[in-house]
Design goal:
Structural class: alpha+beta
Distance between the termini: 159 Å
Low-confidence stretches: 372-398
Mean pLDDT: 85
Strand content: 5-15%
Number of helices: 8
Order of helices and strands: EHHEEEHHHHHEEH
């Protein structure tokens, strides 16, 4: 195909990736690649307790409750949209343009315009949920101090701090109570104590049992590990988990091929089709040629080849920049939670001494068989006896 007065160039939109909600509504039908992608749905997280194989999106969906689709859903849609012999004014983000006349300098106008697929820029779409929504949620959750906002994730480290402080209060209570009952128990056992006899012994044993109960609870909650500290540590690790994911995502953004558009540019640059022009812009290496390692750039087949290569670059960047950090962070989080759950076990009650109440009747056993305790003779006699206190009194016996 002859091309007379041919000229071509890269995008004129300025550097940077367009955000969802921009360049997403074409003014006219797109000739090639403009079909709407499928609806975004969260990746299916593997069942069971084996987390060792979870990748980036499975970790963010399974732990944080985010809505990341599968990476294969991202690459399964078209990344470019192409118009041939367009009247212009598409309303889309332009990547490449070529114009020429097919017969002579005054012949019929021909052109090819390549755009970023508007389906990639739909709010709530596959790419939005894979990249922009997690970025916003993690950024909010890793802000410092009172600026942190955890509404976008199902993991709030502050809840562990509250629980840890509550458990620490319980431990402190048992520690204070343990000391108090120990002191009371020691006091009633001493020679100077006013608590004597069976009642004193019972009270002393009661204080000792209360001391044993409080001491047992405190010891179990603090040795070998403090329950409160285990919970607090799990909260600290939760914060570290969120920060690790954020750092991985932020580091990924420094790679050109972390987005579909960037991966397209990376592919073209790797094959020598374009070169950096500074300020995040690119220019064609040869503006007078349509030939490239991908084929004729004015054809749909060439851009399908560019897409295929770009998608492989993007998948490799996901694996190298996101999967390993996510797995390391998840393993640390699971270990921390596991330590808290196995360390903070239900308390076992101690074995306490049975307290036997005093028996006043038992001190004076019945020796008469009359069913009543035998009362010792006091020398005063019983009623009408020799020791009758009424004897000799007026009205008494004479």
């Amino acid at each position: 195909m002859g091309k007379i007065k041919f000229h071509s160039g890269m995008d004129q939109n300025g550097p940077g990736d367009p955000a969802p909600g921009t360049f997403d509504s074409p003014n006219n039908p797109v000739d090639n690649g403009g079909s709407s992608p499928g609806s975004s749905k969260p990746v299916t997280v593997p069942s069971g307790n084996d987390y060792t194989g979870w990748n980036w999106e499975e970790t963010l969906v399974g732990v944080l409750g985010l809505q990341l689709p599968s990476r294969n859903d991202v690459t399964g849609q078209r990344w470019t949209a192409i118009n041939f012999n367009s009247p212009g004014g598409s309303g889309l983000y332009r990547i490449y343009a070529a114009e020429w006349r097919a017969v002579s300098g005054v012949g019929a106008h021909k052109d090819t315009f390549v755009y970023l697929n508007p389906g990639l820029l739909q709010p709530g779409g596959i790419w939005d949920n894979y990249f922009y929504q997690p970025m916003q949620a993690l950024n909010n959750a890793t802000m410092s101090g009172a600026s942190a906002n955890y509404t976008g994730v199902q993991l709030d480290p502050r809840t562990f701090a509250v629980a840890g402080a509550a458990v620490q209060g319980v431990q402190d209570f048992y520690n204070r109570t343990n000391t108090s009952f120990q002191g009371l128990s020691d006091a009633v056992k001493g020679d100077q104590s006013a608590f004597k006899g069976q009642a004193g012994d019972a009270f002393s044993q009661l204080m000792d049992n209360l001391h044993q109960a409080a001491n047992s609870a405190y010891t179990q909650m603090t040795s070998p590990n403090s329950y409160a500290q285990l919970i607090t540590d799990a909260g600290t690790q939760s914060g570290n988990f969120l920060m690790s994911l954020w750092n991985a995502l932020a580091g990924w953004t420094f790679m050109l091929d972390h987005t579909p558009l960037g991966a397209i540019y990376q592919s073209l640059e790797d094959k020598g089709v374009i070169t950096a022009a500074g300020g995040g812009n690119y220019q064609l290496t040869d503006t007078h040629s349509t030939d490239s390692p991908f084929g004729d750039l004015t054809t749909a087949d060439a851009w399908l080849a560019v897409e295929a290569d770009a998608k492989q670059l993007w998948l490799q960047s996901v694996t190298s920049a996101l999967d390993q950090p996510a797995q390391i962070a998840l393993n640390s989080l699971v270990a921390s939670f596991g330590k808290a759950s196995t360390g903070a076990q239900p308390l076992n009650p101690p074995t306490l001494t049975q307290i036997t109440p005093g028996n006043p009747a038992g001190a004076n056993p019945d020796t008469t068989g009359a069913g009543t305790p035998n009362i010792p003779d006091t020398g005063l006699g019983g009623p009408g006896g020799a020791g009758d206190p009424g004897a000799g009194l007026p009205g008494g016996a004479n």
